[in-house]
Each structure stands twice: as structure tokens, then as C-alpha cells.
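User: I'm designing a mutation panel for Reverse transcriptase domain-containing protein and want to avoid disrupting the core. Could you give me a predicted structure to guide residue selection? Please restate the sequence first so the numbering is unambiguous.

Assistant: Good idea. Sequence first, for numbering, then the predicted C-alpha cells:
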Amino acid sequence: MKVINAPEGIESAEGEEEGNAAPEIHKLTHEKFMDQNPHTFNRTEGAIRLCKGIEGVEHIFQCENCPKDDRIKFATCIFQGCTLGWWHTYAQEVGVKVAHSISWGKLRRLMITKYCSRLELWTMEQEF
């Protein structure tokens, strides 16, 4: 237990020294990711929904310290309908291993390019 504002070396109520507490490390699992209720995405929902979904997924990645190697796997598990079909086609074209190794930034760009018209992007930029 940490003692707030205690000088270094002061023991907490459980007898653990403040300076020696190991940082809590946990790995984000699919179950933990889904427990955060990320927004699913289907292309019919529009650019604003896509951008809000991306922001939500990024928030989960940041709060849960998601390893970069797992981000695509988790993000693509919330695809539905036509978006899921698009992802499967992309993975077949480039190879599943390559598709799962792209960066989160590249997946974001691919999705925005695919599902957001220039007009929608321009409109959102003007509003925000």
C-alpha cells in the first residue's frame, strides 16, 4: 500500500517500503479489451462514428498499456459486416501475417481512406 506524500523509505500499513514497490504490470487480453465495450464498426455508420470508434480504441490501448504487437488484432475484432469483409479481403491481398503486423497508424489511415469521403473529413475539420 502506498502512503501518499510519505518520504521515501517510510513503510506503509502493510509493511512494504514505499521506494521498493514493484510497478503493476498487466497484459491486455481480448477479454479485458472487450470488457471496455469498444464501439463496433460497420461502414454504414459514417465518418463521425468511425472517428469516435478510433478514439475509443486508442483510449483503451493507452489506459491498458496495450502492446503494439496486439493492437491490430484487438482493433479488427470489433469490425462487423462490410468492414469485416473489407479487412478479410485486405488480409488476403497482403497476407494475414503482414496484415496483422501493420501499425495502428496505418490501419487508421486505411480505414479513413476507405470509409470517409473528402467532404466528410473537411466538414469534421471545420466543426472541430
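For picking mutation sites, this is relevant: The two ends are 43 Å apart (CA to CA). Residues 27-127 form one domain.
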